[in-house]
Amino acid sequence: MIGVRKFNSLIFFFAFFLSLGVTYAQADRDELEKRRVELRKEISRINELRISNQKKQRSVLGQVEDLNQQIKSTEDLIKLTNQQANLLTREINTNTNKIGQLRKELEKLKEDYAHMIEKSYKSKSQQSRIMFLLSSSSFLQAYKRIQYMKQYTNYRKQQGEEIKANTAELQELNSRLIKQKEQKEKLIVENRKTRAQLEENRKSQQALMTTIKKREGEFATQIRKKQNEIDEIDRAIDRMIRESIARANKESGSSTRDVYELTPAAKALAADFNNNKGKLPWPVRSGVVTMRFGKQPHPVVSSVMVNNNGVRIDTDEGGKARAVFNGTVSEVQAVKGANKAVMVRHGDYISIYNNLENVFVKKGDSVTTEQEIGEVATSKTTGKTTLHFLLYKNNQKMDPADWIYRM
């Protein structure tokens, strides 16, 4: 019976670790599915913007930028769908192997159980049991024989329960296997359609790029002019930050001008902000990053370099900007060429939400994570609703993608 207990312990630990594997696989599946749904929404949103902008006769440059973004998101969707299909393939193979193993175990259990029943039947008479007890050489031996008979009965019952459990598990695995195969087939069909759409977009992209190549000099001039306007906006924001730091320090009696003098509470807030690096929420409920941080080749005319002190996020018309962390509104200013900017202080960290049409907060207000602070403006020229989002530590620029979750 000790051997039986050891065997059952091994079965328990095997089942426990197997269940952990299933749990982690399910978590991976759920995460991939969540990301797939987000990407499909993103592609749908970009497509709607493209159609809307085509009706407004947007420039060729703008059309290509939209198309490039849609192509990138579609490529990401294809990669992710492939990951899901590969994960399902591994799970299908694992379950197929497990089903085969379970069937073998079930056959062995049934065989052992049949032998046990047969043996029990041959010696089941009450007289045989009494004789077995009476033939004991001592009271202790008789007691042990009673215990043995009880254990034997329990073991037989346990074997029957194990057969029932294995049968139920086998049926559940078979059902799961059918669903997994259906899910995989659905993903394959979806991927086929996505690839077809990707090819169509690439053909449209090539046609537009032909037009751009013919007029590259003209478009390069347009891009440089736009970059000059962006640089002017960035300089205005830099001035706003420097003046805000100097003013806050002066009010606290400090002569320091470049960095915030922090109170213990401000230090704690800054530390909390820093601890959430990579986990901060997006500054809009839904959006697509159309220009990333830093110096980079223009996404369409690569011979021209452009620079961005933050990120640009296209969102839905009427979309709201949201605070990425708890803090205090330190400035609300109109910025020439970019509507209004709201500056939120988080200790010595600063988040800036630029190109707001309507502002819902005022200087000195405390804000909480994901609180709406203003409505993002929609350009009458491009038809796009674009938030310019920036992050600083004192007057040092930081890449928002390092701080915002999955940006």
UniProtKB/TrEMBL annotation:
InterPro entries: Cell_wall_metabolism_enzyme, Dup_hybrid_motif, M23ase_b-sheet_dom. Residues 308-400 form the M23ase beta-sheet core domain. The keyword Ligase does not apply. The keyword Signal applies. Residues 1-27 form the signal peptide. GO terms for molecular function: metalloendopeptidase activity. Keywords: Coiled coil, Signal. Residues 22-119, 156-243 form a coiled coil. PANTHER family: L-ALA--D-GLU ENDOPEPTIDASE, PEPTIDASE-RELATED. This is Peptidase M23. It comes from Christiangramia salexigens. The lineage of its organism: Bacteria, Pseudomonadati, Bacteroidota, Flavobacteriia, Flavobacteriales.
